[in-house]
Design goal:
Elements lengths: L1 H43 L2 H41 L8
Helix pairs in contact: 1-2
Amino acid sequence: MCGRNDVGEQNGEGEAMEQIGRALHSLCQPLTTLQCRLEMAELLCTMEAYRESVKLGLAECGRLVEGVEAMREILRASRSAENDLRFGDRGAVRI
């Protein structure tokens, strides 16, 4: 029986790691866009270019925050599933 729980935990961890890997991959685009926009503003050296870069940069930062929140949720779900496997319904109290 112990081996069965270990396998279940490993499968859950593997799935969570795959989801986190996808979420990390999706963070690359907003980071690259943010970097590019800031570099463009630096090259153009106009107030309008800076304003536009800040505006778009803030939007990309919002996308980054969403990605990080998604990874946090994946970890929470993974830990919850791990605790469910470990403790079952043996009276564990959830807060």
